[in-house]
Design brief:
By secondary structure, the chain is of the alpha/beta class. 43% of the residues lie in helices and 14% in strands. The chain is elongated and about 75 Å long.
């Protein structure tokens, strides 16, 4: 089945037939993919019959693009596994497996199967500058995400590496406290090494307007520079805020937790998936956070260029989350070796 040309009158005829036999059967009879007929229907609903017939396609010579059963199966199986993903994330996940499908085709398949397209409107020009650390553990960000489990309000305390977006640690709490914040940072240091700077907002567990609180005193003792986000300016914590959005869409909004224990188990699984399996748009769309954090980005890209799924050679296990002992980071001045987050001077 190759590309076919349809006039607006022919499309309308197919749609009228679909009202009787159903969209998938009408698509089969017209020898086009059902997602194409869904697309025509959305256009008809938006323009009305008169506007639909008068509409002139932008690319009249291209015809209807073929969508194979293999492409459809790949898209739907990936979306089923990650129901919170949008078309771009599905595309990146497939590319990492060596499967290339256009984002337009992926969107058509997903919309025809119930996806609500949430493409962002053009944003107003931003007045802030984007920043990024230059190596793992140079800068970390920490924030608190609030949500409900049934009627119980809970707080997810989460700590990420700015350079790689790797989740260094998290805790699910029914009450926030300075002790829990200190415990999370110390736990992260014990596993991965000490971060040089820590960025937080000015919430009471992170900051005191009346002198340094115990958390700030702890950071001073550890010689970790504490950076505060500007008041009423969440963009400063953009990476951890983006993470909160991913977690909300892909997990919290997708599952009903029976209780704290159930939520802890699900979040633990999602964090492993996020760190070691989920491609990240902020890392070029093909890398996962662990690729950068563990210094494997170049190896992963080389494998991808050869059409090899990185998942077949990473060998990541849950134990890898316990400690990243050695990292090799590339910067403007060349390669630097880090042991437990500290730069080593090579003679």
């Amino acid at each position: 089945m190759g590309k076919k040309q349809f006039s607006q009158e022919q499309k309308l005829s197919v749609l009228k037939g679909a009202s009787t036999v159903g969209i998938k059967e009408a698509a089969r009879l017209a020898e086009v993919h059902y997602s194409t007929v869904y697309e025509w229907k959305h256009q008809l609903d938006a323009l009305g019959e008169e506007g639909f017939l008068a509409y002139e396609t932008r690319h009249p010579g291209r015809g209807v693009k073929e969508i194979s059963d293999t492409q459809e199966a790949a898209v739907l199986s990936t979306w089923e596994r990650y129901p919170g993903f949008g078309p771009g994330q599905v595309r990146n996940q497939l590319r990492r497996q060596g499967i290339t499908i256009s984002i337009g085709t992926i969107r058509k398949i997903m919309v025809a199967n119930g996806y609500k397209d949430r493409r962002k409107k053009p944003e107003k020009e931003r007045s802030w500058s984007r920043f990024e650390a230059r190596r793992p553990l140079e800068l970390a960000q920490m924030d608190i995400l609030e949500f409900f489990i049934n009627k119980l309000k809970v707080y997810l305390l989460i700590l990420i590496d700015d350079f790689s977006r790797f989740i260094l640690g998290w805790r699910l709490l029914t009450e926030t406290s300075i002790d829990e914040v200190i415990g999370l940072v110390q736990e992260s240091i014990d596993r991965y090494g000490k971060m040089g700077e820590l960025l937080t907002d000015r919430g009471f567990v992170f900051y005191s307007w009346k002198g340094a609180n115990r958390f700030e005193q702890y950071l001073e003792l550890e010689k970790i520079d504490h950076i505060h986000a500007r008041p009423h300016h969440p963009q400063t914590l953009g990476k951890v805020e983006a993470l909160n959005g991913h977690l909300t869409r892909e997990l919290i909004n997708q599952e009903h937790f029976s209780g704290i224990g159930d939520a802890v188990q699900s979040i633990s699984e999602w964090v492993f998936h996020y760190n070691y399996e989920r491609t990240h748009q902020g890392l070029g769309g093909l890398l996962v956070p662990s690729d950068r954090f563990h210094g494997l980005a170049d190896q992963v890209v080389a494998k991808l260029e050869k059409g090899i799924d990185p998942g077949t050679f990473h060998g990541y296990t849950a134990g890898d989350m316990e400690r990243s002992i050695i990292n090799l980071a590339l910067g403007p001045e060349g390669a630097t070796l880090y042991l437990l987050g500290r730069p080593l001077k090579l003679k």
